[in-house]
Write a structure and sequence with these properties.
The structure holds two protein chains of two kinds. By secondary structure, chain A is of the alpha+beta class. Helix content of chain A is 56%, strand content 15%. Chain A folds into two domains: 191 residues, Hypothetical Protein Pfu-838710-001 (Beta Barrel), CATH 2.40.320.10; 294 residues, CHAD domain (Alpha solenoid). Chain A is built from 18 helices and eleven strands. The longest helix of chain A is centred in the last third of the chain and has 33 residues. The N and C termini of chain A lie far apart (58 Å). The model of chain A has no long low-confidence stretch (mean pLDDT 91). By secondary structure, chain B is an alpha/beta fold. In chain B, helix 1 crosses helix 13. In chain B, 50% of the residues are buried. Classes of the chains: A alpha+beta, B alpha/beta. Chains A and B meet through loops of A and strand 3 of B.
């Protein structure tokens, strides 16, 4: 395996010429051409490129157009010219190596600016006896730029291996560390730049990472989780308002839904009136954000919708896409109004107030250990799902599956938020069987929502230019949706069986004790 | 991963020069590129200052007993790696003949690199042999340098005939005039007439230039050392044609 690139710190007092002189005393060097770089580092809001070991950048200014460059260790820089645009999605980039590389990593997430970096860069090659470059070195003196402020970063020497020359790389690193006394940098240059401007390397995760210890008072645990969820919600508001990509809204909705689940599951922790008010407001936010999300789901699933159709029929369905997009634009205006309203601000403030360690008006369970409360809830919800799911047969109405899915979400949130308090060997397989079950219930429900929405649009679609042909094309697309729904329903029994197996029920009983009241 | 082979029955016609320059340009275009130096003389390896030796032996590589990534070497061009030549390749025909499905052997080695590279360029030894047929089987595109002479044109047509007789799926073929000296009447005439009469011949012409010959002294691709020279500009045009041809091929 090729060694990974390393960054070493250069003494700030050492200028570039002195650094080269120092290195040349110990290494056979080829000195490249010095250059200055001014670039804006880009990543998705949740840091997908960084997690995949990629780095994307573009020059500042030009209203966000220019050449987009993607770096990957050991690979050549990939470049593509991008037009100034409101947002930068992989799927909207010109075809080529950049899009091919970014498509799978970013999926539907947009690239957003993370930090601007100005550097002077000097590339160097460490040569062997044949004057072949066997290690690449880069001296970089950089500053992060934010709001016209320049924040100098520690000067670096990047040491990059060349494939097939591992010994030379190890030898060079040894010389740099042991003979020249250069220390490894604690952080990657770009992470340091992000931190310098107050950002978080790795982006903003949609998952609340709240480590909870067994025995923690339920009020403190609820506060920590609710506070993290409020933070995620607030962090996703600007991207939702700017409509940068669909996932800002999605993550905002998931955070709100999780918060509702916390309030529902830990119902004795807070004073009933305050809790009911916040739950009501969270429900209002879910209602406010729902229509745009439903339309996003339709538009994101467009390729799947038209997949069963021959290409000419798929093209005839385009007026439907136009209709969905226009409807979404209208709903987005409504959503923006809601998110900018005083009611939304007040809802967040009430949520924050509830998320205090010691609630002003505590409920009866505030002082109970969180693992006691969570275990009881996990046990009850699982038992209820087993009961409801076992009653489902071929004649059961769709609502029965829908209700079971809602319970499944409840259980999933409990396991996601509080699963860390219990044995991983119990929680992990439980999450797996639950996920398998939720997948088919989700396919069934999404198919129903989608086909209902499309049926509701038929009159409006008929009045569109090209509407009659689109309506004809819609028929087979709807048939395929219904068939997919039926497939999901047929799979239900197989997915439900391991979830509700006697040994699984016994494991749940043993691992999540009933609470004595 | 797309596979291009620079191939000719004749030696000294510009195969290696094309392989190293196009490989450099491909990497510069953002493609993770490898050159496999299949010529036991190891000219491509020499040009990149890499020892023409496969660690553990070239035979083991061909037999599938050696991970090609473990013997790959990074060149001085970022994103361009080299699978070095090995002197044992002089017996590659015999080695392939001993194996089951000899025509698939090179493809199998390349298959192991599929996720790691976007483009492989095979720099072949001059011959028509079992190795050549194995190359034809592995390649998506044969890139054939043609020195401007009547015999070379005939050889190119013979190659096309051979591939047509072998039947699909064979590689696409793109010829290009190489080592063209515009002071010579025949060279000028063929430069005009050949691309017009043979659609598989590119209208890009690689000139006979001292800078190309000097690559052996400088041991670096001319597109890196003298990017504004006519030869480098011609290689850039040839790369554009190759890239378009590859993009048009099915995945």
């Amino acid at each position: 395996m090729t060694p990974t690139p390393t960054q070493l710190l250069l003494p700030p007092s050492l200028d570039r010429a002195a650094a080269v002189e120092l290195l040349a005393e110990r290494l056979a060097l080829e000195v490249g051409r010095a250059r200055t770089e001014d670039r804006v580092l880009l990543d998705s809001f949740d840091g997908r490129l960084r997690a995949a070991g990629l780095r994307a950048e573009r020059p500042p200014g030009r209203r966000d157009g220019g050449v987009l460059t993607v770096h990957e260790p050991g690979a050549p820089p990939r470049r593509v010219e991008v037009e100034p645009a409101r947002r930068l999605l992989a799927s909207e980039l010109p075809a080529g190596p950049v899009r091919r590389r970014l498509d799978d990593v970013l999926e539907m997430r947009a690239l957003v600016p993370v930090v601007r970096l100005r550097s002077s860069v000097l590339p160097l090659g460490v040569l062997n006896g044949d004057a072949k470059t066997v290690v690449r070195l880069v001296i970089e003196r950089a500053e992060a730029v934010a709001d016209s402020k320049r924040l100098p970063l520690a000067p670096r020497l990047a040491v990059e291996p060349v494939l097939g020359y591992d010994d030379e790389h190890a030898r060079t690193l040894g010389i740099l560390r042991d003979r020249l006394g250069l220390e490894p940098a604690g952080h990657d240059l770009f992470d340091e730049a992000v931190m310098a401007v107050g950002g978080r390397p790795g982006g903003v995760s949609s998952k609340p990472r709240v480590p909870l210890a067994p025995g923690t008072r339920a009020a403190a645990a609820a506060a920590a989780v609710l506070s993290a969820l409020a933070g995620i919600t607030e962090a996703n508001v600007p991207g939702t308002l700017a409509d940068l990509d669909t996932e800002f809204l999605h993550d905002l909705r998931v955070a709100v839904r999780r918060a509702r689940a916390v309030l529902r599951e830990l119902d004795g922790v807070h004073e009933a009136g305050h809790r009911a008010h916040v739950r009501g407001e969270l429900k209002w936010i879910q209602g406010l954000t729902g229509p745009v999300r439903d339309l996003d789901v339709q538009l994101l699933g467009w390729d799947t919708l038209v997949a069963p159709l021959p290409p000419e029929r798929a093209a005839e369905l385009e007026p439907l896409r136009g209709l969905l997009q226009r409807r979404r634009a209208r709903e987005l205006t409504r959503l923006r109004r809601g998110l900018r309203s005083a009611r939304f601000d007040a809802a967040l403030a009430a949520w924050r107030e509830l998320a205090t360690t010691e609630p002003v008006h505590a409920g009866p369970d505030a002082a109970v250990a969180i693992d006691t409360v969570a275990a009881d809830r996990i046990r009850r919800v699982h038992r209820r799902m087993v009961r409801d799911g076992s009653a489902i047969d071929d004649d059961s109405p769709p609502e029965a599956l829908h209700d079971l899915r809602k319970r499944g979400k409840e259980l999933r949130y409990l396991l996601e938020l509080f699963g860390g308090l219990f044995e991983p060997k119990v929680v992990k397989p439980m999450v797996k069987t639950l996920k398998d079950l939720q997948d088919v219930l989700g396919s069934f429900q999404d198919g129903a929502v989608e086909s209902d929405m499309l049926r509701d649009l038929r009159d409006e679609l008929a009045a569109e230019p090209g509407g009659p042909a689109a309506l004809i094309a819609l028929g087979p697309a709807l048939d395929a949706l219904v068939a997919g729904q039926q497939d999901a329903r047929d799979e239900f029994a197989d997915r439900f069986a391991p979830f509700a197996a006697p040994e699984q029920r016994a494991l749940v009983r043993d691992s999540f004790p009933k609470r004595s009241r | 991963m797309k596979v291009v082979a620079t191939y000719s029955i004749k030696g000294g016609v510009g195969k290696t020069s094309a392989a190293v320059n196009l490989g450099t340009l491909a990497a510069r275009d953002g493609l993770r590129t490898l050159i496999w130096d299949l010529d036991p003389q190891g000219a491509a390896s020499f040009l990149f200052r890499i020892k023409p030796k496969v660690k553990g032996g070239g035979r083991r590589l061909i037999r599938g007993k050696r991970d090609p990534l473990e013997v790959m070497k990074g060149t001085d061009v970022l994103g361009l790696d080299l699978l070095p030549a090995d002197f044992s390749y002089r017996h590659l025909d015999i080695e392939l003949d001993k194996r089951k499905q000899p025509l698939q052997r090179l493809s199998k080695v390349l298959d192991a690199l599929d996720g790691d590279y976007d483009l492989a360029i095979l720099d072949c030894a001059p011959s028509i042999s079992l190795v050549s047929e194995s190359v034809f089987s592995a390649a998506d595109l044969l890139l054939v340098p043609i020195v401007p002479s009547t015999l070379s044109v005939r050889t190119f047509e013979q190659l096309q005939g051979f591939l047509a007789d072998t039947g699909p799926p064979g590689p696409a073929v793109l010829g290009f005039l190489s080592m063209v000296d515009r002071r010579k009447k025949l060279h000028r005439e063929l430069t005009e007439s050949l691309p017009a009469t043979l659609p598989a011949v590119s209208d890009t012409v690689i000139p006979s230039a001292s800078v190309v010959e000097l690559m052996g002294v400088r041991r670096a691709p001319v597109v890196s050392t003298l990017p504004r020279s006519p030869a480098a500009i011609a290689y850039a045009a040839l790369w554009a044609r190759v890239r378009d041809t590859l993009d048009a091929l099915p995945d």
